[in-house]
Prior knowledge:
Helices cover 72% and strands 3% of the residues. It contains 10 helices and 2 strands, in the order αααααααββααα. α1 crosses α2 and α4 packs antiparallel against α5. The relative contact order is 0.13.
Amino acid sequence: MxxxxxxxxxxxxxxIFILGGFWLHxxxxxxxxxxxxxxxxxxxYLMIREHHxxxxxxxxxxxxxxxxxxxxxxxAAGIVPWKYFPVIVxxxxxxxxxxxxxxxxxxxxxxxxxxxxxIYIVVPLSMFPFxxxxxxxxxxxxxxxxxxxxxxxxxxFFILLWTNDSGAYIIGISFGxxxxxxxxxxxxSWEGFFGGLVLAAAVAWLLSDWLGVVNxxxxxxxxxxxxxAGTYGDLVxxxxxxxxxxxxxxxxxxxxxxxxxxxxxxxxxxxxxFLFIILFG
Length: 281
């Protein structure tokens, strides 16, 4: 099986899993986001342990990540009041207490690499629930009793993100001549970047009425935000992998690498998209 076909088949399963999970029901929305958070976070810890020789606190870090994402969901859904949101702070501080008893040679290296994915991965992705609860628009595929819940923002976000990635990949390998940032990612080109941006903007214009939330111009602006911030997200993860000397963050997705490889663009672009929707939606 050639690389393009393998990448296409895997990509199709990713689309079904992600869009299906977020779109199906509020419970599957929560579980899909939690799986993405846990998968990307675990891959980060594994890469650091294997290639940087720093023994991160995998279990405490993963538990804290789950607490942050779950608390965000409960608060966004109105199940738990906002005043309980600071519970995440003691969970983070506990990691520092635990490190005192581990007797590692480089305790602050361990702390840094245990805490960094909470900021880099968990916090940005924990904005997902706030984009769905208390919003109206595209309905879930299954009925539920929550009056104000719409996965429309997330569905639109991922459609445009994948459109941008596909456009950048196809145009890049076909016409790419001028390197975007060769020292970090030798294969990325300016031609691919603009190809992805134009294709994503076109799809945003076509789907804007169906997606709702913001008007056509708003979705086109969102597509531009995704193209720019998503590219930086990809470059940041490439910088991480290059510093560790690895090609992929994992191998769970043939042709696409791991969770962190697949969602690196989403991690850094969604906060900007969500901020735009809050301010102008």
